[in-house]
């Protein structure tokens, strides 16, 4: 008997120790919570993924941009809570009649975190650094630069020419050609201005290749140096915590909290549980299904104004019937989008009648709307001789995007609507990575598909131009020349008012004359915070600045 | 003994080489690659081409394989495609997390499993025995992620007995010595950090322990029952040995052999279970790393190293189990 007693005793002691540690801790922690909510204090925000590094130019995803945005500023930025352009590091900006020369008037007295001044020379050093970046390893990581600036030194497609300091506070950037993306693209977090001294000291441009991957510099990993409201306090990768400290010398509104910690929690359910347990004060991307419950429990749910689009893409290549505008219109009439938004849409979602949200310039309030009308759909199909049409409808699996929280459910509803109008739907699920994107965007195997886009900056070209500005396999038609020309022309208009008008007309024509796809909804992702978080302004571009956040008792 | 160990080590090397080759080609036969995953919606033909070339994926697969072998032999596993950190850094950070979790689980499983199994056998057919059988059946059949979410819902929401996720409270985990948070706190005399880490360990370790625990109870029970029926127990009884002596020296010692084998085999199950447990509890160990590396962009260098590491752990643990037979059973030593 003795041996078994001893074994049981060991087990019991182990269990008790663990239990006791649990009790001791839970008492201690509830005491700790009150301390953190004292004046200033630490704001803990649950992010959804690991950042890559903290050198703005080498990044292109929201999880990297979140901390980067707190530490750096851009020349032009957005009025909080909107997509409206306002001065950032530059108090004002202007371009000449050709649209090629951009003159910025810098804010005076701004200093980088290392104490060096922000002046025209520093701004030009950043532009020159991007343009002259050496090595494919580094260049391949500059996704936004390649996209906006076309190419690097020596490339015939390069948009950038040079940058000169007119005086200490006036950098003048000259482009080789006019590009519609500006000035909107100057707000991109990837084009944040970094301290030239720190970049030199910490060897920022050294991206080395090791096997089939890259490693970044000390600047990108340990010494990011910008002008932002927070300075870098470290990234503890073992616990998934990025610490940002208040920058006491910030030129704008100084941070109200002393410290901000971005805690990385990849699972949305776990983020919600941590919020409920009071261990974090704000979470990004709560699951759309949890939205109501969280609001009912007294948490603040902040909807971002819409800056994305989900569309039903139509590929005109495989099925000749789809070349007929009437058939595409029938598809649009067949969809009960209002009901889809109500039943499957995340909070704040609304039906889309064009391919950009109303926060973007060029949105036309008076486009033709295809309200749900099955009879009209059937009639149009009959007129086009397309009754009994069968379509292959591709949709992605293993993915969730802010504009598309659950592709499978969205597909089911849309497919049912189409069937009700007499269109036979052959659903083809494909995994997002390794199937869907290749089949849809490279091989064009589908007749219909769902896909979407989140905007990068306030420019209609960034939405409409991305989809329909040139022939794409996705929509299967190289021949919609009229559409490509119209969008190209609108994009090339230098005068901002004329450009806005041109894109409004493009949007009207997209709805009535071309209808290359059917816009479905705008579905903004939300934020949720505990009751004691004040001053957080949700940004349509997911570009929240946390210096305005304070914690009340 | 030395010969046994050296033979096992040679086996280990051969297994690893075969596995490495298999893993290399298997990973690259999967649809979708790092380029698309990294670029997402923003993949233009131009950026796609640039990145493919920069990553070296435009070269023939044999060239890539040769480069991979050369790197592995020289101990260079490359850098993570997602973060650019050396793979060895990424893994040595995640490894202690998983070991801490697995040790916690195995301590719970052994600490509770062997005594309970033994008691069930001693009380065969009675209430305790039947209750144990039912509970272990539930323990084996309940999926880890379901149990994990259930425990979290009961014990971390509304009532805050335990933290919902993570290895340590935010802001406390700055004492990185060994990467084992419970141990680090003790080493640096920050006992509150240790207690906090232990407090975070309870639910995940228990979740991960359920299946091995149930199996250990079952095996211990069956094994003890077998031994109790042996002639030598009756002989020991007949020659008048005291009951505690019989139990300790004859029953338990003989009954432990199959249990130890089971514990070794459960290592594999623990590693697999860790993937799910870590996902549920945001644990940040090897399991999280595996899922991130697959879903977050086919991070080949990390995946390759992880699979090799899992194989090494599995083989080494089973070698240790074999060696422990010699300690438990003198007959093995003689052979």
Can you put this structure into words, describing what you see?
The complex is a heterodimer of chains A (553) and B (335). Chain A has 553 residues and is of the alpha+beta class. Chain A has helices spanning 2-36, 62-71, 120-131, 136-139, 143-149, 196-201, 218-221, 268-277, 291-296, 325-334, 337-344, 374-383, 407-420, 432-443, 460-468, 481-491, 496-514, and strands spanning 42-47, 76-78, 85-87, 90-95, 101-106, 160-167, 170-175, 208-210, 213-215, 230-236, 241-246, 259-264, 282-284, 300-303, 308-314, 350-351, 390-397, 424-431, 448-454, 517-522, 526-529, 533-534, 550-551. Chain A has a seven-stranded mixed β-sheet, sandwiched between helices. In chain A, a hairpin with a 5-residue loop joins strand 4 (90-95) and strand 5 (101-106). The longest helix of chain A is centred in the first third of the chain and has 35 residues, at 2-36. Chain A is globular, with a radius of gyration of 26 Å. In chain A, 51% of the residues are buried. Chain B has 335 residues and is mainly α. Chain B contains 14 helices and no strands. In chain B, helix 6 (127-141) crosses helix 9 (191-228) and helix 8 (181-187) packs across helix 9. Chain B is globular. Classes of the chains: A alpha+beta (553), B mainly alpha (335). At the A-B interface, helix 1, helix 4, helix 5, strand 9 and helix 8 of A face helix 2, helix 3, helix 4, helix 5 and helix 7 of B.
């Amino acid at each position: 008997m003795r041996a078994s007693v001893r074994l049981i005793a060991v087990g019991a002691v182990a269990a008790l120790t663990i239990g006791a540690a649990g009790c001791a801790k839970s008492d201690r922690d509830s005491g700790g919570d009150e301390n953190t909510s004292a004046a200033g204090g630490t704001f803990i925000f649950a992010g959804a993924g690991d950042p890559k590094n903290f050198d703005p130019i080498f990044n292109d995803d929201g999880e990297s941009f979140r901390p980067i945005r707190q530490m750096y500023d851009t020349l032009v930025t957005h009025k909080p809570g909107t997509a409206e352009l306002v001065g950032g590091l530059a108090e004002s900006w202007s371009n000449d009649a050709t649209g090629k020369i951009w003159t910025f008037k810098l804010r005076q007295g701004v200093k980088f975190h290392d104490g060096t001044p922000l002046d025209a020379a520093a701004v030009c050093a950043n532009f020159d650094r991007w343009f002259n970046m050496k090595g494919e390893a580094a260049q391949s990581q500059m996704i936004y630069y390649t996209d906006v600036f076309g190419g690097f030194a020596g490339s015939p497609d390069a948009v950038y020419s040079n940058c000169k300091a007119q005086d200490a506070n006036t950098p003048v950037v000259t482009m080789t050609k006019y590009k519609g993306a500006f000035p909107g693209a100057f707000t991109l977090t990837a084009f944040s201005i970094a301290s030239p001294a720190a970049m030199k000291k910490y060897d920022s441009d050294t991206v080395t290749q090791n096997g089939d991957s890259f490693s970044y510099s000390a600047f990108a990993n340990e010494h990011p140096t910008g002008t932002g409201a927070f300075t870098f306090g470290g990234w503890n990768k073992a616990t998934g915590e990025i610490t940002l400290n208040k920058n006491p010398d910030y030129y704008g509104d100084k941070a109200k909290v002393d410290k901000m910690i971005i805690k990385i929690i990849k699972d949305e359910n776990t983020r919600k549980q941590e919020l409920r347990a009071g261990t974090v004060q704000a979470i990004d991307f709560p699951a759309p299904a949890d939205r109501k419950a969280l609001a009912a429990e007294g948490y603040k749910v902040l909807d971002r104004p819409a800056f994305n689009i989900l569309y039903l893409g139509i590929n005109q290549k495989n099925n000749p019937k789809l070349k007929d505008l009437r058939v595409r219109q029938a598809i649009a009439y067949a969809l009960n989008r209002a009901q889809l938004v109500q039943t499957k849409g995340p909070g704040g979602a609304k039906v889309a009648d064009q391919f950009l949200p109303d926060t973007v310039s060029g949105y036309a309030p008076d486009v033709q709307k295809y309200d749900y009308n099955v009879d009209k759909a059937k009639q149009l199909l009959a007129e086009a001789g397309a009754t009994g049409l069968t379509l292959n409808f591709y949709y992605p699996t293993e993915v969730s995007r802010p504009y598309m929280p659950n592709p499978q459910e969205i597909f089911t509803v849309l497919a049912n609507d189409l069937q009700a109008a007499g269109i036979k739907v052959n659903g083809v699920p494909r995994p997002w990575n390794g199937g869907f994107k290749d089949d849809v965007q490279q091989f064009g195997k589908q007749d219909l598909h769902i896909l979407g886009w989140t905007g990068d900056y306030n420019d209609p070209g960034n939405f409409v131009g991305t989809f329909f500005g040139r022939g794409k396999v996705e929509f299967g038609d190289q021949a919609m020349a009229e559409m490509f020309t119209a969008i190209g022309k609108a994009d090339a208009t230098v005068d901002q008012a004329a450009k806005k008008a041109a894109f409004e007309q493009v949007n009207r024509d997209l709805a009535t004359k071309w209808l290359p796809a059917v816009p479905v909804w705008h579905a903004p992702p939300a934020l949720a915070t505990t009751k004691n978080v004040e001053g957080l302004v949700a940004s349509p571009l997911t570009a929240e600045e946390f210096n305005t956040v304070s914690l009340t008792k | 003994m030395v010969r046994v160990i050296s033979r096992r080590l040679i086996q280990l090397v051969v297994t690893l080489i075969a596995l490495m080759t298999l893993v290399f080609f298997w990973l690259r036969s999967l649809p979708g690659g790092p380029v698309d995953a990294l670029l997402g919606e923003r993949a233009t033909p131009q950026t796609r081409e640039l990145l493919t070339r920069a990553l070296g994926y435009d070269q023939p697969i044999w060239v890539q394989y040769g480069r991979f072998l050369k790197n592995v032999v020289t101990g260079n596993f490359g850098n993570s495609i997602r973060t650019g950190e050396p793979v060895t850094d990424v893994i040595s950070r995640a490894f202690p997390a998983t070991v801490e979790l697995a040790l916690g689980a195995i301590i719970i499983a052994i600490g509770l499993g062997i005594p309970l199994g033994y008691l069930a056998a001693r009380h065969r057919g009675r209430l305790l025995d039947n209750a144990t059988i039912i509970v272990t059946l539930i323990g084996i059949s309940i999926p880890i992620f379901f149990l994990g979410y259930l425990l979290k819902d009961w014990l971390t929401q509304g009532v805050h007995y335990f933290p919902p996720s993570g290895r340590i409270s935010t802001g406390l985990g700055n004492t990185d010595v060994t990467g084992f948070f419970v141990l680090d706190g003790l080493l640096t005399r920050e006992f509150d950090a240790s207690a906090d880490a232990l407090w975070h360990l309870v639910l995940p370790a228990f979740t991960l322990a359920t299946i091995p625990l149930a199996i250990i109870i079952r095996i211990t029970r069956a094994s003890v029952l077998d031994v109790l029926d042996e002639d030598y127990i009756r002989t020991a009884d007949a020659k008048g040995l005291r009951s505690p002596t019989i139990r300790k020296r004859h029953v338990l010692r003989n009954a432990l052999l199959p249990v130890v084998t089971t514990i070794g085999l459960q290592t594999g199950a623990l590693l697999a279970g860790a993937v799910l447990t870590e996902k549920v509890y945001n644990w940040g160990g090897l399991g999280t790393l595996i899922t991130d590396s697959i879903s977050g962009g086919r991070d080949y260098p990390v995946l390759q190293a992880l699979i090799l590491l899992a194989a090494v752990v599995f083989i080494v643990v089973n070698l240790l189990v074999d060696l422990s037979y010699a300690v438990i059973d003198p007959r093995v030593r003689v052979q």
